[in-house]
């Protein structure tokens, strides 16, 4: 009797974008420099020999619909890294996978096709054509794709409306404010309906109020469109506000990778800790990031009218609740189940930037003193 053989298969997860051990070296003998860097050579040692290691062993994944922020000071390698993600710069070593496809193995023609149809870029300095009106600028990417004029005008107008520029189609770039010009650049990227948006310091040239308005605009668009975005910035507050995940770069290397809460509560080293020192934690951290294990406080009277909070409650709002409560604030899920509590001492420690370990020490000290 011949029995049937069934082979269990498991669906393989493919990230929208994956950077796999990326290196970019400028100067003499770049391949040798990569080998030395992989063996532990110092970046400054290579620089003394006339070789610049702009990106060193960078690796991360970006999931569909995620805003992935790469942040760091000038010279940290973030813009070089971004330009390797769409093939504007060829990696010295490593791979870039887009929907599982190795971009570094594509022919120049195939790579141009991917860039024109699947990946859009929003630049820092608007990059608008002064001799084209707003509608023509917004439709330029579609023109490169060979989309007929009637169709590209419709799609460009729709993208402009999404970006709050309906009625400005026939205006010229020099008639717009800086924020409006940047919205045209964003509309141009959206009009192509690309799967991936790369944004290189896109808001850094704007005044603070306009910059925050553009951040709001991007978040509203993201809720509706669910694009996959890689966003480059040197502004930590911007990174914390926009990023689902954040990569912190220093001297060409990614020194920490995680959520805004991970980085604020558990900085990887003294460099990251100093970087986040002035961040407004109350507008980033949530109750789930600062709570400890535990049940409803034993000293809470049965008729206590104190307020519990949800795990996503911002610390800014949590502070107001804690100020009214005579005991640690209870954190509950949507069904009313207790997830943990937030002692006042821990709340103050995290708000003061002590980090998770020091905050836990503060909790321990509270228990010891109370005993």
Automatic annotation (TrEMBL):
It comes from the Bacteria. This is L-proline glycine betaine ABC transport system permease protein ProV. Keywords: ATP-binding, CBS domain, Nucleotide-binding, Transport. SUPFAM superfamilies: P-loop containing nucleoside triphosphate hydrolases. PROSITE patterns: ABC_TRANSPORTER_1, ABC_TRANSPORTER_2. Pfam families: ABC_tran. GO terms for biological process: glycine betaine transport; response to osmotic stress. Residues 17-276 form the ABC transporter domain. GO terms for cellular component: membrane. Belongs to the ABC transporter superfamily. GO terms for molecular function: ATP binding; ATP hydrolysis activity.
